Amino acid sequence: MKRYWVLLACIICLTTSPSFGFGGYSTLITPIENSFYGVDYAEEKDEARLQRLEETVYGEAKTGDIKTRLNKLRNLTLLLMIAQRLHILIHIQIDRLQKSLQFIKKILA
Predict the structure, then answer these.
(1) Of 30, 83, 86, 100, which cross-links 40 as Cys (Cβ 3.0–4.6 Å)?
(2) HSE-up of 70 (CA within 13 Å, CB side)?
(3) Could you state, in order of their start, the residue ranges of all structural domains in the chain?
């Protein structure tokens, strides 16, 4: 449970980061690319990189200003990361419960 709160605190810090106001978005796009592709395309323009990510995530590139689009994509990526971690934690708990149930059945047999 402590890990969940630490992860949540990190997400809040990232989503309220003032880095959006300082121009280039490369430092924000790179971690998202790495999470989806395992590589980054830092040599390309931010718009092209964002379009590629949107096509991967949404099936099509979105329109509007890059700041808003990147913010939505980043938030969605963070939510996906949380969902993956919760999925893992749930399966760990299910496995533990199954082992406990097996142990109880052996005792009662």
Answers:
(1) 30
(2) 25
(3) 24-108
Span 78-104, pLDDT tens digits: 898 899 899 999 999 999 999 999 999
* CA distances in angstroms from 100 to 4, 31, 84, 86, 108, listed in the order given: 24, 39, 25, 21, 12
Alpha-carbon torsion angle 83, 84, 86, 90, nearest 10: 130
What is the per-residue pLDDT across 33-55, written as a single tens digit (0 to 9) for each? 998 899 999 999 999 999 999 99
pTM for the model stands at: 0.62
Q: Considering only CA atoms, give the Rg of the chain.
A: 20
Q: Are 73 and 50 in contact (CB under 8 A)?
A: yes
d(CA 92, CA 102): 15
